Structures
1.
Amino acid sequence: MKITALRLFNVKRFAGRGVAIEDIGDGVNVLCAANEFGKSTSFEALHALFFQAHTGQPKDVKRLQPYSGGNPVIEADIETEAGRYRLAKQFIGGKRATVTDIGSGRLVAQADEAENFIAGLTRGGTAGPAGLLWVRQGITGIEDRDRREEEDERRVRASLLESVQGEVEAVTGGRRMAEVSARCAEELGRLVTASGRPKAGGPYEIALAEQKRLAAEVARLEADVDALRKDLDERAAAAKHLKELDDPDERAARRQALERAQTALDAARAHGEALKSAQAELSHARSRRDATRRELDAFRGALATSVQLGGRIAAAEQARDTALARHRAATDAIARAEAEAQAAETEEKQARDLLARLDAALKARDRAERVAALATTLETVETLRTEREAAEAALAPIAVPAKSVERLQALEVEIAALAALASAREPKLAIVYDAGAAARVRLDGIALGDGEERGLADPARLDIPGIGTVTLRTSRPAGDDAALRKAVAERDALLAKLGAADLSEVRQREAAAQRAKAEIVRLAARIEALAPQGLPALREEIARLAAAASPELEIKGDPDAARLGAEHASQRVGAARLALREAQPSRGLAEDALRKAETALAALQGERAQVEASLGPADGRAERERALAEDARLAAESFAEAEAKAAQLRDAAPDLASAEAAVKRLRSAEETSSRQIGDLRERIAGLDGTIRARADEAVEEQWRETREALDAANGRVAAFEAEVALLDRLQATLQAARSAARDLYLKPVMMELRPLLALLFDDLTITFDEKTLLPHKIMRGGAEEDVERLSGGTREQLSVLTRLAFARLLARDGRPAPVILDDALVYSDDDRIEKMFDALHRQSADQQIIVFSCRQRAFARLGGRALRMIDWRPES
């Protein structure tokens, strides 16, 4: 297949317009243009034409639609062995697909039949040769991509190598090996998934499920058998234990032991009550002894405190008298300072009142002068505003919109160009008269001069004296001057709207309007300078000053002398206030000292009053101290007696906790035995019922039968496991054999690639990955390098050379497909890119190559057929 033309309409950036790339020939074809020219858009459109159904709207199709909407139309002319055809599709709206025979114009196929025809050309869609050889911008084919895309391309390369290699057929089986591998994979896929798990619904998975079910059933029945045996053993143990607990002698012994323990517990509790009474008496005696001792100690301490407080109160009274004298002195000093400050403030007020009257008189005079000046400014501004309003009124009828002038100028230029073009296209007529010819030929009623050239109207009337009238028709298509008439009509309408006769008058009005605008700007600037806040603000300022004006006051006295007197008075006030401020802290300190002295004295007096009240009358204090000492002695003796009694009872007390524990243990044992006897009888009855039910089900016979079925299922699973292992080993062996013959398997593509590599690199060999069939490692200078670690330029060069080699293999296999590269050489340096150009030309001898690039200077050296885009519109 060879592409000879590509046309697209309303695709991406070409909204509402169409472009075409015609005359695409054999060999190297180059479309080199700047960015945003439409190269990648052309590639995507061609890709959609061949690989996207016209009935769907996937993401790649929606990307073709411009932002303004509409229906993308794509058309391509191709040449095959069967003939030349035109493929066309319209997407999104008005969906259609057609195939037309270019030679006869016959419609070959449409709709789904057209899709089938196009699919047959690509032989496998994006997984066919075109998917392998058509390189999108930014894709080298070596980088990591979508796993499905990589697998599709790998299958194409593998199929191509298997179809063109010859020697591999004898060594590794070639297609026969591929068939065996496929059959092995098919058999393996029938049993397991790609990850080695049993395939859902497959025989292996069914056998495993049956094995699992039988194993679970065996485990369940085995548990039932174990449970039956356990129940029998448990019933025998329970019967034995019940016989031991229900013996009459054992029961009588338990009752007698409980009665003896209860008697010992009662005696221990009675002794404990007596001990509690003795301990209560001891606690009361201790409290009374401690209380009498504390009361005696407190009385004696109060006597000592009373003597001490007498001396402290005398010292506090002396400190209070000193603080009181200091406070009186500070108060007198402050009174004197306040009197001086008051006299100074009176003097200062009188001086400032005189100074204020003098200042008011001066300000009234200044305000009157300011009002007069502002009134003059207001009059000037009013005059300027009147002039500006007159200028604006004169500007209104002559103003011309700038866009209208620009559009009128553009229309004049367009009319001149279209008129010149129409005149150049118009048929011309010229006559050279014979010497002595008196008559003159008239064209549309106007005589033609000798040798004069004049354009022909359609139709044109030619009057030849003595012969007749000749009517000439040019048969020009109607509407050739439609653009000219449209432009003239638009110009006349615009002139009528502006009220002008021609562009010159519009320009004169525009100049006059600009002068008027300049005058308006000048007047506005003067108004702004004189009244920056505006006329209303100026009027308000004059009114405010006029309202604030007061009758002119007579100035009496010297303002400077009055100001000097006010300053002296102010200094006197400051000095008096400083003196007052200095005196005030001393009064505050004196007040604090007096308050502290009074507080301390009052506290000491209150404390002594409290102590005296607790001691009582002075004449009875000695007798009271003797009485308190006697009470303390008697309380101590009572405590000693109570303590001895409590100690005697405590020493003879039995162990109450042990007696209680013994009774609790024996009673619990009796209750437990009775409860166990009832539980054992119930348990034995339940076990009897369970044993009879399981014996009726014959669980042991069922367990043996299920065990035999499980052994058979294990055998089937083992057979499937052996089959999977055998298929895995066979697949590994086939893969090892193909890997061992990898170099021979890849010999066809290496033969095509070797001369191409020699154009760019010295002493470089490539190792292909046996899984992806893409360059994997390179060897140069005795060192091995991974392709992934190479520079971007080297990787893209290897990618393009590899695709050229596969393209040659496709041609040899009878499946020629064009190689299309969309900016595929963006990282190559100047030297390498010229060598890549040589490689492209070397492979283009019997191969069509189409290159899109934005690197105009670099690709100028590529040569080949230069393609260009022209305007195109699809037939309705």
2.
Amino acid sequence: MQFANTIDFAERETFFVEVVLPLSLAINYTYRVPFELNDRIAIGKRVVVQFGKHKIYTALVKSIGKQPAELYEAKYIIDVVDDFPVITEKQFQFWDWITSYYLANEGDVMAAALPTGLKLASETILVLRDELPTELVLTEKESLIVDVLHKQQRISIDNVIELLGQKTVYPIVNSLIAKEVIYIAEEVIEKYKPLLKTFLKLNSFYRDEENLKELFSVLERAPKQLDALLAYLKLSKNDVFVAKQQILEDSGCGQGAIKSLIDKSIFEQEKRQVSRLGHADDEFEINFELSKAQQTAFDEVDLQFKEKDVVLLHGVTASGKTQLYIKLIEKAIEDGGQVLFLLPEIALTTQIVHRIKRYFGEKIGVYHSKFNDNERVEIWNRVLNETYQVVLGARSAVFLPFANLKLIVVDEEHESSYKQHDPAPRYQARDASIVLAHLHQAKVVLGSATPSLESYYNAKTNKYGLVELNERFGGVELPLQEVVSIAEETKRKKMSSYFTSVLLDDMTTALENNEQIILFQNRRGYATILICATCGYAPKCVNCDVSLTFHKTSGKLHCHYCGYHQSSLNICPACGSVHIEQKGFGTERIEEELSLLFPEVSIARLDLDSTRTKNGMQQIIADFQDKKNQILIGTQMVAKGLDFDNVSLIGVINADTLLNYPDFRAFERSYQLLSQVAGRAGRRDKQGKVCIQAYDDNHRIIKQVIASDYHQMYLDEMAERKQFNYPPFSRLIFVNVKHKDANVLNVASLYLANALKSQLGARVLGPEQPLVARIRNYYIKQIIIKIEKNAAIQKVKMVLKDTIKDFNSQKDFKSVITQIDVDPN
């Protein structure tokens, strides 16, 4: 692979480098290159630099020049970490766009983009001085630290925290420094460690048949060693190295036998770096035929690509969009390019990953947060050296170092999980992927059965190409959909727990036919709220302005915002009453009630609580796929990309919880989620059924879901958006202002809002309290900037950035946190 921007440093010239530090800094800093590192420096390499008095960080070289910093004396870089650049020039261009568009700092982008394993950590090390003061008075805790240092010579701050059993150790450390007992050393620690395995090979002396026979006779007195030798000979092909672990497993001998054979020079050993990543077991094959409708759509996409860089593929659920993606990926690979396949949440799309791996085998890599640091570094390197031609990833995969990107597929492009909320940069991966494709001169396919209104608007106004696929693959009919009034069923006393008589009858029929059922309830936990029937007291989170949710599995009350939990209530702490009632219900409660109604039926639950382990999600999905469970209850996770051939019934327990959310996108999101959930039914050779339970059974959105009328939903929503000047007819920027003191926050947010209004006028709304006004002990106020579509957006952003910079410099507001969210979801 070619690495550009390496400088010829034959002469002893003085060079300066602009570096990006993994810190939220407004500017990049300039460092001086020592002469001895001149020939090793290159754009995209990591360098070790000191920032501040003691801290050492890994920074990335962004540019190289001969101009020193104007306002400060540049420090020297300490070392160069890499032999080859880990960041490409196009990545830096992409980072610049992210920084500019989303008003983030480049250090935030670096922190988000690089795997943790590629970011070196500076660990503060305490070292005992050789000569200690003669008259020395130490406290008990100081003496404890010094005693350990006498034995170990050096320990880290983390070790001190563990030793003393407290987090506030810095005053003690500072005291020891002041008493000249210790000093600080900074050690840079490389986090990425390759996985090494031991391989064994028979000494060449024993290749001779006579020598090998003699060896057998010698080892007859050491049967375990003989077993190990025989296992090696069985596993070895053409005198190659064999993994030590394989020999141990095949022979049943212990580590001691192997060690003896190595000590006797019978085995030669070698440590090799091996991949932590699994290998695809399925054969490489692309042998399916597209249906007539799919082939027409494929040809249309190909034709649109001649004029447009972005094409929106609007295909109903189960229309076979994945097969179209595979053919498009195959074409890009044949042209020698790389492909990025973005999925909304990689853990939820196990089936798609498996299906695509079947076709592309070892050419494909998967990148998401469930991988550990070392695995993510390996994937990064494989993309950089083009070992992987196809990468399946969640939103962070847009930051991978593609060398020859030709195609980006964004599946379920409407999904809100493509938006990064915290920390900065708060980017939208779908929008960012379009810019990334432009930098690489690549094409983009946005796919969805229920496209976001913004994307569909862009297609309808000819900014994107549009291809529609309106029939299910194999001629399977769309599911029969029915809405049932909870209010009417309650009035007629036909409700059983949370289930209408219609849903229960449908479930009974499906179970009798040995078919599977998915039930959707967009609340996890057991009871949404506990409330005292006597005085109305409801337990709230100590850190946030939200009620605690009762989880029966843990027996505790949980906050879904900050993770705080406490024991459940039996007695009201306000009035002493024992009449504590449970209001609302989540997936846990549905699971319990169902097990009472259908005691012989195996039931599984798919939500955040049941999928916390690395492979928890995959196991639940695999068990349901293998028909080990007949009913699957889940939150919105069940709506995303799952494909089960035996599911005939989908039940929506309460659609009203989606429709009544106070957000201008609530109806759009409700339509998308209900349609996606409904799309899981009857995806093979039989028409499925969807039963939607709701109080407001005449709601416009529910009727449009029942009729599968996306176009009418689009027209209705766009008329409303235009009337109230919401996206896509305007752009939104949210400014969240936070502080632990509500009074300080009120003053600060009003000051900032007025400062913005003085320059941007009526575009600025607020400050107002958001739906949840306190999270993690921080009170929140929100300022909304609504910018007309034809305004110079970058000028508005510069005004916003400068105003916030002035605001942050005010002495009274230094402790106030401001967060900018461009294009909030």
3.
Amino acid sequence: MQIDPVLIQVQGRILSTGIKPADAARQIGVGLAALERHLAGSYVRSDSLAKYRLWLDGQSKQNVPTVGSGQAARRAAVRAVSPLMDFAWPALVPERPRHVVDLFCGCGGMSLGFERFKDQAVFRVAMALDIEEPMVRVFNDNHPTQGELPVARRSDITDFLNESEVRGFYLDHMARSTGDAALKDGLCQLGVGGVDMLRKTLQVLDTGFLRDLAELRGDPVYLAALKQLGSDVLGQTSVVGFHNATKLPATGVAFPRFGPLIWHADGVVDEGVRQLTLDIEDRVVRACRNSARRLWEAELAKLLERAEGSGRGQLASAADRIGRFRVFMDTPVMRKVKSLWLNWRATREAIRRSFFENAQVDAGLRALYRDGRRVSVLLGGPPCQGFSRIGRGKIRSLKEQGVHVHEDEDSVDSRNQLMHQYVLFVSALAPDIFLFENVRHFQAVVKSEGIEFDAADILAEAIKEVSHDGLGYAVARRIVVASEHAVPQGRERFVMAGVRGDCSGPLNGIDAATWCLTLQHREHVPLQVALEGLPSPSFNVKDAVAAVPRAQGARAAPLRASDTAGDVYRNWAFRGDAADAHIARPPRVDDQDFFKLMGPGKRWMDYRCDGAPTLERLSAVLTNLKSVLHKSPQLTKRFGFNAEEVAGLCKTLDGSLSIRLLLEAIPAQPGELTHHLLTENYLQKRDGAHGDWLSRMDPSQPSKTIVSHMAKDTYAFVHPFVPRTLSVREAARIQSFPDDYRFGSVGLVDGFKVVGNAVPPLLSLQFAERVAQVLALVETARVDRNTPRQLPMAG
């Protein structure tokens, strides 16, 4: 049942002021039992609602303003809840910051809101993982290292074998990133050996494999085959993907190096540390070898399928390159590489399984994890493609296997593995609360092999089924629109929250998961607010790290109850005295001229003239003339033009004619015959063909969604006031990154990519507030079970 927004305000007033419910009921003029029913979501009569409004306003009845009905009125009521970060409950701040783990962390947008909530007193990012180097670099640029390891690690989530390994990796990271000597000692004393011995053993194995591989690649036969292959083949996306999936170092002549690989090159191991002495069972070795062989064959099958694909132009060229690599993989020297790889991978996995599946090691890790190092909040959202193929039978299989994904033949698809692994981390770390975010269409029903699946339903069921120590999760989901929460863009994302069962118990039946997602609605913040105070950008990539000062007046200030959404945004985003990464692509002169012709908020396709009467008359006249000239070619001399010219003009008489005329009026650049956009590929674009690929932004409205595609092309983001596209810093502003968050070390292309992939941190700040309230309520209820508290029911 949906609670009236007025009651949400009443509950907020009761919680923030600390007034006893009985006293509040007397002041309002209702019975205590009625107040409790209404706060729980029961029907409220109009006369009772009037009493609640009077109490909130502190006014006489005749001075109470009329409240409208419908969605607008409900949102207006919700907006009146206390300002952001104004929740004054003392228990909100724990004795020590709660640990947060950020999976698929990107540059840190999701965890930044948690970390900066209440000036880092409530949450601390303990570990962040991502596979892409630019993402990790930006994250660590903004998080100073306290120990020998940085907070963020470049890691492939699909590498983890089981829950015990996840806990071991997390604890080892905690020990070395914080300098926790007691934890480090505990990890060195785990039954069959310590984590440091495991790291030493794997590093020796990896070093030997790389040495043997380098020797094999120095063979003249290999070098001759490689030369015949051609360098263009090795850079092909599918070929790179094969190496990433198998963890085979990139084929080439340089000394081989691994990409992201857990337990490899993650710090120096003391020389005195011995290698593990493990009794590895034959069945484990066989299982690992079979798993590795299936992976290799599956990845080769993908290459074969793509090599046989049909297409023209770039697609045909790509298929040819993939086909050449596929033939190269069947050469005798590459069969030797496969044998070497198979032994290395199977041995590596068998060592890890034997270590982490040991009962003593697992028990020791559990004890260390429970000793004040538990994760309170797990964040992250993996790519969702492929997960719709996982049915409920697969979920039961996950539970039976302890989410041991590498024995699951159906999870060879790396996209499926990412979703498996998210569930694995939830199960292994058993966070109090998790937040999963993904594209808006994640919850759409997908058909696969004749069966319909809802990815969101399956994820929710998987997390409920696969749980730690028998504790399930209550989950809720919602589509969150960033522009409704003081972020100046219309970004829409699917968000799922889960609250662990034993945390929900003290909340007296409150839907805490829904509460975590019920953010305060605010009016829209227009784009022009996000662009305030920034000078003109640089067009020189070398200036990326340079910090440019903002104009005076664009500064953060303390929040007040009367502040607008724009004030909330400014308070969050305008931090520090300068901002880096204010670099943009230098516009072509002819493009600048076209940008000047475009009005704010106008798209390329808005200037089409489809259906214009004049266009239709011109088309009819020229078509008739074309027919006449075809029948009477002798007339061409009298008219001074031929039939081919008329036919060419007829082809231009479609809705793009108006755009063509605008572009033709712009002088061509030296060496070019016409404006470079005067091609059919561009001119035919419309609604169904990315007609907004070139558009000027509207300063009076929130921006369209900032996307990672800006790394390749920013024409969809033409600045509303000047004839150029956005800078990296302006895109970061629209994403609500504070000005003191640095992006300069990754340049322009990677800068756009990391910003476009991020979760708006101002949005995550509001999630952090809700999550902090739930955790504080749980903690308070556990301490004082005789004083039950309630959160307002989510509307």
4.
Amino acid sequence: MPYFINVILPIPLEKLFTYSISDAEASFLKPGMRVAVPFGKSKIYSALVHEVHQTAPTIYEAKEIDQILDEKPIVTAIQLKHWFWIADYYMCSIGEVFRTAVPSAFLLESETLILKNTKIVFDETTLLDDEFLVFEALQHQAILRVHEISAILDRKNVLPVLNRLLDKNIILLKEEVYEQYKPKLVRYVKLGKEYRTEVGLETLLHSLTRAPKQSQVILSLFQLQATQKKPIKVSELETASKSSTAIIKALIDKEILEEYYIQTDRISYSNEEDNSDIKSLNEFQEEAFLAIKQSFDKNLPTLLYGVTSSGKTEVYVKLIEETLAQHKQVLYLLPEIALTTQLITRLQDYFGEKVAVYHSRYSVQERVEVWHNILENKNKAQIVIGARSALFMPFTNLGLIIVDEEHESSFKQYDPAPRYHARDAAIVMAKLHEAHILLGSATPSIESFYNVQIGKYGYATIQRRYGNVLMPEIELVDIKEQTRKKRMKGRFSVRLFNEITDTLENGEQVILFQNRRGYAPILECTTCGHSPQCPNCDVSLTYHQHKKQLRCHYCSYHIALLTACEACGSSTLDTKGFGTEQVEQELETLFPDAKIGRMDLDTTRGKYGYEKIITAFEQQELDILVGTQMLTKGLDFRNVNLVGIMSADTLLNFPDFRAHERCFQLLTQVSGRAGRTKKRGKVIIQSFNPYHQILKQVSTGDYQAMYQEQLYEREQHKYPPVNRIIKITFKHKEYNKLNEAAEWFTKGLRNAFGVHVLGPEFPSVSRIRNQYIKNVLIKIPNGQSLVKTKKSIRRLEKSFNAISQYASVRVIYNVDYI
């Protein structure tokens, strides 16, 4: 009986595809291995085996696979189970999860090769100029790639030329799958076989008396072998002998030296041993630790609510130590890559080379190596630190998941699908692995705290800062009054200016928070009021003074700074609002002797961008650090005594039901960067409305009051955590077609769910990258089945897609919208 496999393709398909395999392949293949399969007319994809069976597909004839790409599974059975849950819960295809989950090096796609057709004879004079250039190139080279033909013809679009040559049967096309990952091989050297005896060595040194440089290389090799017991790298031998590559190559050619290669990881930790003992916990940490252990015994996800600088990391370290003692793996999730920089050093000091890191700033090659180390449960990948993508790692023996700063919206993926929330997906993952999960935060999300209240989560708390340091003194400054009386120094109130001056005089550091990058969000003509807009999005262009550019933060469109108004030609252009660049420039004017750094998306683009800035600030090379919300998340700076929040109003006045909760979290978190050692820190919050309830709650650190107030409002308006929310987004380049399609779909939703449907409405930015956007919110009460709701939406979508005029309208689902 023939054998078949069901595979997951890395494209958004609703179902798995079936391919036929031979008996030998059936005995070799296992779920989780990759195979190259033909799909469509000629494309070849690397697909993932889901199951091997003997049931032939009824709708289509199964094609044969192209080749097997792995010798053993690269994805575990639990991973596959988790991926299917993500696809089902977040209303996307399993192919989209597969594409997101694995490093792109695993997603081999075929490359089109162009070959000469040797079986036909034709008249070369009938070819056009561009066709002849391709034909002539194929006379000298058997195979050409598309990009090579593009270079030969000096044009981007070469498909018309290739199509003409195909029609004339002059060329043939072939698809080839190529491997993207190349292991790093380090070149080592040792003495040739015949010279390893005393006699052979003596003969060798005698023969090299007339070649002192070569003799020096051999002597240096002996010295290195005597001092270190590990293999000798060619680069080490070069340095030690002060010789050149050519001399070593000459010795290799003479077979005096023998070269060999060892595969090495691109990222490795130099210290072999653990450097420091785990710190002992204080009484408050110990109390929290015991409460966490009790919750773990009941197999409950546990929330650790610890105020800023209370030493939550030390509790995590203790739990990690216990988990490693049971020979299990640990996953440590962080919302921001910037946070990994500080944490990696701390954990490596405790656990040495057991720490591995996985996030998007690492190269594809590095991520593949970490993937294999985790899959093989190697010693160097017992603790994995990473941003949300680390959730997809192939753990084989997971014992503990820590989700630090669990309230952060960065844990939610917005684009592309799957639009998952890493915290919620981690809870399901822990259940599948029978592992423990701890959520930590100084400002827990209302959803998590609500789950504690209803007994769904365990709970532990630390209400005192480490070393009994007092919480920072928070002061609200009314800049409305100061602006009216013209007392402001640029964007700084007199109070904030004086505090910065005092802090710098005391040799302490300052953090200033402004949640907007660039110099100014709007450049406006003071004569006619026109401001330059992005041609692709419904937003004004942000002015970046450093690059003398106007830039769109949605689609990256940019133009050079205008010297005159495009509308009226007047040269009276002025800026409105301010960003981190403007704050940095004003500081340079007000405090010319201070060293000032800036930390936002513009200054942290490189792989080590975060590390350079954070290290410079830690080592007190900078006096003042200006930044966006990257600064707020769990960073630990010992010498910061003052935190200034430039404008709290931009956070409060945001059209979102979570705006007040987010404002409280962000301001509390950034305030927590002040006074983390002995001296009590200070926080100055500038606002046009300092009497706002949320700002008062921040100044008193009253999380409970904020929680009660926000929960009451959400109960009244049926928002999470009382109800669940699915946001449906419609996208299309034509305004009218989008409106009609959204209205049709919403009418169907209202028939099914009645008053629980809001919209369709345009968001505050209603066009991005030339696509108009309209949103619909569906509120799902607690008693209503989420599964049945999703099925009803999917049925409606099928009817919607059957209408030809709406087929091009893109429908995007965002479950548990944040």
